[in-house]
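Lab notebook, page 48
Experiment: co-folding of the full assembly
Goal: obtain a model of how the components sit together before planning crosslinking
Operator: M.T.
Materials (sequences as entered):
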Amino acid sequence: MEVIIYPDKESANRAAADFVANALRRNPHMVLGLATGETPLGLYSNLIKMNACGQISFAGVTSFNLDEYVGIDKNDENSYARYMRDNFFDKIDIDISNTHIPDGMAEDIRQSCRAYEKSIRDAGGIDLQILGIGSDGHIGFNEPTSSLASRTRMKTLTSETIQDNARFFGGDPDAVPRHVLTMGIGTILEADTVILLAYGVSKAAAVAAMAEGPITSMIPASALQMHPSVKIFLDEPAASKLKLADYYKWVYSRKPSIDAKH
Ligand code: F6R
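Observation: model returned without errors.
Model output:
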């Protein structure tokens, strides 16, 4: 796990966008795993700008989102399907028919989760997975005690996540759906490369537990310690509880060249 600490989230977002852009230039037909929530918005807006001025193209990209609320229609303003169109897909040159999001309105949820896993396999697997992290250590919506080998399935949100996400539902925790569909931790760990972004002091404890604590289903993101290619992009507040913060900075500042940093 490579932990990279930036002075602020703007510089972290620029670096993360450069990383994604370089991967895309190397493989224009890449399969991208995408996240929603507040964290990736800055990364997406940098990628949208690069796309608009012709530096990168998403025309050959296939994407799979991590998660979706159960019982919310894809056109509902709170659905992750709508979030993706509003904040990313409608602003880049991706072919919308190559984008995939779990179907929160599926009649047969188990079957639709199995089909989601199959479409990821049929696409050749995820080349680059983008993640945020919940304040309780979740990735996707794999809440504490999720199996570290889990696949796409329905999960129930914790009260901490319901409180955290109430801001997207007019501040009303009762309006936040209790159930979600999410890629599993096993699904996420199969991506070739993973980048995780975390900003703000509210993420500091989860980030420290993920990177420096034991691997435990109580902190689902700690499973990333078992993945051979993970980069963590942090701002200073999110890094504030890391014991080895100075070491991570020292290592990064001595990387041989800018190219190697991407
Ligand atoms: C969303 C997702 C979640 C979020 C996490 C952080 O697709 O997978 O794991 O990344 O809940 O959310 P924000 O970024 O809103 O703090």
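Interpretation: The radius of gyration is 17 Å.
Next step: discuss with group before ordering constructs.
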